[in-house]
Design a protein that fits this description.
569 residues, alpha+beta, Nucleotidyltransferase, domain 5, Actin, Chain A, domain 4, 5-stranded mixed sheet, disordered N terminus, nucleus
Length: 569
């Protein structure tokens, strides 16, 4: 007798791409859409709520804020940039001719007479408290009128949930913000009523380095609060390999506030190879502003902490910064300053090597001291206990230790009865106990964290990640295929520059016949590769066993993730 409900029976039927929603949340942008869509909807992943009368004020900035540098640190940053200018001066163009460099003084002289062209009054309008009932979502957050004192929240920061001590910084507040933002996008952008979500399924793209508690809460958010009929999680690096059509690759995700590296093979991210660095596109934008300020940037009123100016600087960086050595000399840069209710200002300015120096910070990370000194690499943390999961990592570690100890004692007793003189087996076995237990409990050595406390440049992070692969053959495969994804990977010439840096450092015994660095596979936008990969993965027949149903989640809870998650839990 079949007692399953129609909803449960539908779980075994082929997935319809139109009924599968792919959600890829980031520190700056949210990408959401149906698996059948060519491209996802991309909006600012932020929410603004009116501040209560006399209540606390909290405003997350659009750009990572700069810090006040000491004289020593400022001198080090300036010396690093001077050294980078010297390197550019010694470079050759692709035709072999010397590359003429530019100085900050040249740029300042060229912009000295720059006068902006005034246009008509902008038709844009600020969003005031009287215009909204409860919240503002997405790009409209940039126009939240500061005089009305909105609280602005970005639920993700540096690739993880934005937990902080201020108002709206608790886990429950962040989950409520995510429910509001995602629900708003599903209702208004995808035009799906919330009451119909029980007929849809969701795939959530998560960071390669994850917090188990946060994932448990996010699954509950999808299945219980939002009411999806099923969901599963996939790591962003694994999704990127699906999007690029690769079986194995070293994946680098250059996000707005973090850069992550890991080696992926056969849809599994190798835990020991994961590194997350707390710098990204936002740091490059602040470095770019630091450079053009010293080159006589004529828009003197620019304030990077203002949401509209932060968005303007980001657009200029994305439109003009590059790593192509054939582009040299002073280049024309045009931009429009548009503020609600005031005339627009059109600027035509010149910028030189600053366009290269900003993204070159990825290879000279000392300059990111501009946005703080605490940017250290981190790996996947060991699993913490969960009261809802009796067979968690702590349980496995203890039972493995006990079973291994008994096996060693039996082995020692057998050896002693056969050869009473040799009792060294027991002593040696006891010394290796922790090592064996750790290898049983996880695929990473317990020294993951200490080795990853350094601030790596992009090429150093790749070398360190691949060095931690489990076999020499895997290392060769990873060096032969490197995939660059994320919004920060759009700089023209980045792949060539990275390729040249890596060729000088790859150990000879692991050097492949060819090192291929892939950016924008299949002519895709690098920032959408992971989203596209998750969409492809959701429709695969082999993904059927990954889906988690709401009834199962209510009954079994977090233990389901140990059984169903397509990564080591």
């Amino acid at each position: 007798m079949n007692t399953s409900t129609p909803q449960e029976q539908s779980q075994s039927e082929p997935i319809q791409a139109q009924t599968c929603i792919i959600i890829h949340p980031g520190s700056k942008n949210l990408r959401i859409g149906r698996a059948s869509d060519v491209n996802p909807h991309t909006i600012l992943h932020a929410i603004a709520r009116p501040r209560r009368p006399k209540g606390p004020l909290h405003r997350d900035p659009v750009l990572i804020p700069t810090v006040v540098l000491s004289k020593e640190n400022k001198l080090q940053v300036d010396e690093t940039y001077q050294s980078m200018r010297g390197t550019l001066q010694s470079c050759l163009r692709s035709d072999g001719t010397p590359r003429p460099a530019t100085s900050a003084q040249q740029v300042a002289l060229a912009n000295k007479q720059c006068i902006p062209i005034q246009g008509s009054v902008s038709k844009l309008q600020y969003v005031t408290k009287s215009d909204v009932e409860d919240y503002i979502i997405g790009d409209q957050v940039l126009y939240a009128h500061s005089a009305d004192q909105f609280n602005v929240h970005f639920p993700f920061r540096h690739g993880d949930l934005n937990i902080h001590a201020g108002v709206g910084g608790s886990l429950s507040s962040i989950l409520a913000d995510l429910e509001t933002i995602w629900g708003h996008c599903i209702t208004n952008l995808l035009e799906i009523p919330k009451t119909e979500l029980k007929h849809y399924r969701a795939v959530l793209v998560i960071p390669d380095i994850y917090n188990r508690l946060f994932l448990k809460e996010l699954v509950g958010l999808l299945l219980i609060q939002l009411g999806f009929g099923g969901c599963f999680l996939v790591q962003d690096h694994v999704a990127a390999t699906f999007g690029a059509g690769l079986g194995a690759a070293c994946v680098i995700d250059l996000g707005d506030q973090k850069t992550s590296v890991s080696c992926v093979e056969d849809a599994l991210s190798q835990r020991a190879t994961r590194i997350r660095l707390d710098y990204g596109g936002s740091d490059i934008t602040q470095a770019f502003y630091y450079l053009i300020q010293r080159a006589g940037f004529p828009y003197k009123e620019c304030q990077p902490q203002h949401p509209l100016d932060g968005a303007l600087l980001t657009r200029i960086k994305e439109g003009y910064c590059h790593l192509n050595l054939d582009f040299c000399g002073l280049r024309d840069v045009n931009f429009v300053v548009e503020r609600p209710g005031v005339p627009t200002l059109r600027y035509h300015i010149k910028i030189g090597d600053e366009l290269l120096l900003a993204p070159l910070g990825l290879f000279n990370t000392e300059v990111f001291a501009l946005t703080g000194q605490d940017k250290r690499g981190q790996g996947q943390a060991n699993a913490s206990g969960d009261p809802e999961d009796p067979h968690d990592a702590n349980y496995l570690r203890e039972t493995s230790r006990r079973a291994h100890k008994e096996a060693l004692e039996n082995q020692s007793a057998s050896a002693a009865s056969m050869d009473p003189i040799d009792n060294s087996t027991n002593a040696g076995g006891q010394g290796e106990e922790d090592l064996v237990v750790d290898s049983l409990a996880a695929d990473a050595a317990p020294d993951d964290q200490p080795q990853q406390q350094l601030l790596y440049s992009l090429d150093q992070a790749i070398l360190h990640s691949i060095e931690r692969c489990s076999s020499d053959e895997m290392k060769r495969r990873m060096y032969s295929c490197i995939l660059l994804v994320g919004g920060g990977a759009k700089f023209e010439g980045l792949s060539t520059w990275l390729h040249n840096r890596l060729l000088l450092q790859i150990p000879f015994q692991f050097r492949p016949e060819q090192t291929e660095i892939i950016v924008g596979p299949k002519e895709m936008d690098p920032s959408m590769v992971a989203w596209k990969g998750a969409a492809i993965m959701s429709c695969l027949e082999s993904a059927q066993e990954l889906w988690i149903r709401p009834t199962e989640w209510r009954k079994i809870g977090v233990r389901l993730l140990r059984e169903r998650a397509p990564f080591y839990w």
